[in-house]
Every structure is written in structure tokens, then in C-alpha cells.
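Following up on my earlier thread - several people asked me to post the actual chain instead of describing it. Fair enough. Here it is, all 64 residues.
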Amino acid sequence: MRVRVDAAKCEGHGRCFALAPEIFKEDDRSHCVIPDPVVPAGLEAKARLGRANCPEGAISIEEG
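Reply from S.P.:
Thanks for posting it. Predicted structure:
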């Protein structure tokens, strides 16, 4: 599984990195950044939770 964030859509609500700090990080403006797009085994549900809680729909997931 790979995860991406569309920086143009991210408004910096911080829900993703509050719910899944193992995957999502924040930059100096509190916008989402993803240091490693490959989701570690066992954290798939957290990646989906971060995506589901993004009000702008800025997070996308590529399964497989």
C-alpha cells in the first residue's frame, strides 16, 4: 500500500497526523507531509483512517 497527499488540497487540519503519526507528519505550516509513501505492514488501517478523516479529500491510497 502507498499513500499520497495532494499538497494543493491540504488545508492543515491535522486530523491525519493526529490519528496516524506513524504515517503522516506535519510541516512548519501544519500541513500534511508523508516522509515514506510505503505504508508499513500492520498500519494499513491507520492509513485508511487518516484518509477517511481528511475534510478536503487530499489523501489518496494505492492498494497493493
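The chain has one domain: 2-62. That should answer part of your original question.
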